[in-house]
Amino acid sequence: MVKQGTVLVVDDNKGILKALGLLLDKYFDKVILISSPNRIAGTLWNERVDVVLLDMNFSAGINTGNEGIYWLSQIKKADANIQVVVFTAYADIDLAVRAIKEGAADFVVKPWENDKLIATLLSAYNLGKSKKEVKFLKGMRQELSSAAPMFWGASQSMRQVRLLVDKVAATDANVLITGENGTGKEVLAREIHRLSSRAAELMVTVDMGALTESLFESELFGHVKGAFTDARTDRIGKFEIARGGTLFLDEIGNLSYHLQAKLLSAIQSRSVVRVGSNLSVPTDIRLICATNRNLPEMVTQKQFREDLLYRINTIHIEIPSLRERKEDILPLAEMFLSRYAAKYHKQGLGIDTGAQKKLRDYPWPGNIRELQHTVEKAVIVCETENIAEDNLLMASPQVSAAQPAVSTLEQMERDMIVRAIRINDGNMSAVAAQLGITRQTLYNKIKKYEL
């Protein structure tokens, strides 16, 4: 039998501790024995504990079980994921029920039967393991369920993209998706995942642009308890969460040069090492990356590793901007209109001829994301049967310096960010420097204005 997990036994009878130590060592990776409950907090801080076997009575002559209930609550406060099996010398069903109501997984009565004790502890261990997995799966599946469907449109450029996706999706080839902000790179990644043999598993998304350097390894590779100050429990990283599925690394071009080597190592070795651990954990993921930056140019400027580019760029898919597929603008607008008319209880809304022309003629620097936001605002402000030109609150693409447009401060800030992104060809570090703000602040504003 393969040994796994760590069990902590807390009992003031040293004879019992010795016997349990010999018994449990055959089934668990690590067995920790302490005779005083006062050592529980320190032990949980210094060790990764999966299951606690906790005696219910420590003070001589007092058999109420109140001490055990107290220490059970302290263990759960320290880490709610730890499974606790209570140990009592008295077959007191009321006490056992009370302990279970307070969070215990099960109970064992002294004197114990070895087989029953082992079965109870292993069951508690597997329960805790399952709960952790379910917690991650729920979070990831909630993310998947809220994803927007892929809209292909009728343009020739998108037909070519669709043909390529149909060929690539069935393979496990790494894919690099490029395109301007708002073109739908993440939506396309989800479509590739949906069409793949991994569709039944998760697609896990990581925004590399919003990921701080100090958290990079912990987020992607995971960490073990005690690896750093706030590492109070073990945590698996995105590579492990995505096992069997797809890992989508958005804004890959914003990853700093020295961290690119660590990512490359994980991709090449098909394994990760959690922070604070020496154990290599194998991974099984399909990798999709996306960026709005020119990675080959960044390679020539020594801003992006050439070997990493080769690894992530087995298949390259470029999504055209919305101004390059004008025949798709109105169908997209109609799709968003239907969605938001239902959301805001304004079913039956249409788009009049003037508004249609305005939508077609606008250059859409924010692409599909900007169009979606514009249609939603139009639905909210429209008070007639059809959306008119004046309901479309878009930034003017060409404003004379002598005759500045009247705008709100937020609209001016938004326009300034859009211009800076276009001028700097999507280089977010350069955009942040030009605007005099940090890169994180820039990303916060991009999300705020849905650029």
Automatic annotation (TrEMBL):
<feature type="domain" description="Response regulatory">
    <location>
        <begin position="6"/>
        <end position="125"/>
    </location>
</feature>
<dbReference type="InterPro" id="IPR003593">
    <property type="entry name" value="AAA+_ATPase"/>
</dbReference>
<dbReference type="InterPro" id="IPR002197">
    <property type="entry name" value="HTH_Fis"/>
</dbReference>
<keyword id="KW-0805">Transcription regulation</keyword>
<dbReference type="InterPro" id="IPR002078">
    <property type="entry name" value="Sigma_54_int"/>
</dbReference>
<dbReference type="InterPro" id="IPR027417">
    <property type="entry name" value="P-loop_NTPase"/>
</dbReference>
<keyword id="KW-0547">Nucleotide-binding</keyword>
<keyword id="KW-0067">ATP-binding</keyword>
<protein>
    <submittedName>
        <fullName>Sigma-54-dependent Fis family transcriptional regulator</fullName>
    </submittedName>
</protein>
<dbReference type="InterPro" id="IPR011006">
    <property type="entry name" value="CheY-like_superfamily"/>
</dbReference>
<dbReference type="Pfam" id="PF02954">
    <property type="entry name" value="HTH_8"/>
</dbReference>
<dbReference type="InterPro" id="IPR025944">
    <property type="entry name" value="Sigma_54_int_dom_CS"/>
</dbReference>
<dbReference type="InterPro" id="IPR009057">
    <property type="entry name" value="Homeodomain-like_sf"/>
</dbReference>
<feature type="domain" description="Sigma-54 factor interaction">
    <location>
        <begin position="151"/>
        <end position="380"/>
    </location>
</feature>
<dbReference type="Pfam" id="PF00158">
    <property type="entry name" value="Sigma54_activat"/>
</dbReference>
<dbReference type="Pfam" id="PF00072">
    <property type="entry name" value="Response_reg"/>
</dbReference>
<dbReference type="Pfam" id="PF25601">
    <property type="entry name" value="AAA_lid_14"/>
</dbReference>
<feature type="modified residue" description="4-aspartylphosphate">
    <location>
        <position position="55"/>
    </location>
</feature>
<keyword id="KW-0804">Transcription</keyword>
<keyword id="KW-0597">Phosphoprotein</keyword>
<dbReference type="InterPro" id="IPR058031">
    <property type="entry name" value="AAA_lid_NorR"/>
</dbReference>
<dbReference type="InterPro" id="IPR001789">
    <property type="entry name" value="Sig_transdc_resp-reg_receiver"/>
</dbReference>
